[in-house]
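Late entry, evening session. Most of the bench is empty. Finally got around to the prediction I had been postponing all week. Sequence below, unchanged from the version circulated by S.P.
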Amino acid sequence: MARQRPDIIPYITSRRGEVPDLVSNLRALPDKRGLCYTFEHPRDRCPRGYLCGRVSQNRHGNELYGEPEWVMVHPGRQREAMFELRCQVCMGPASRTTDGYLFLTGPVTDGRPYEGLLTAQPPVCLEHARVSRDQCGHLVRKGAAALRVRVPRLFGVIGTHYGYSGGKPRVIESDGPPIPYTDERMPWVLISQLVRRMNGVTVVDLDQELTADPQRAGTETCPGAQLAR
């Protein structure tokens, strides 16, 4: 039986027609110590000063449009939700209790603890935690673990590592393992997604949390989430 189509399009999901900027617009800084754009805007840099990949956004005002690319994450919207620790589905405040922010992840099956785990998935609000668990293809296939994280510290990025040869930047590695901010390669990385390390982790029962807070147990959309049509 085919899996049911999701009811809600998460904020961070890419839309058909959203495209990355041309690689030809990348340059090396004058001192050859990192990447830049030919015509750069301050918003092209993350708060730590590293270059972020440009990808167009299908927007009419605050409304996103276009068919969802369900398996694709929009880099700009992922970075926004992850940096601000907002719900990846609706961009409302992520659920937070004394045990920390609410994250969903696949189950750990190789004996590793959740403590210290790296994630590129922004947190969720309680309203959309059940939607994500029950309708996200990856979580449906693999199973989901609900985690409360007291200290979801920014660790680094996923991106494309460039070098410099022949007078222009050249790709060395694309979307490899997460690169920590402390890595000497960072000035030459075009950032796609932000990554956090989960510290102070408590595994929780999502159904119990939803039952304990019935006012937030529904699947209604918040501002920023959109019904799939």
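Two things to note before I forget:
The longest helix spans residues 75-84.
The radius of gyration is 19 Å.
Will write this up properly tomorrow.
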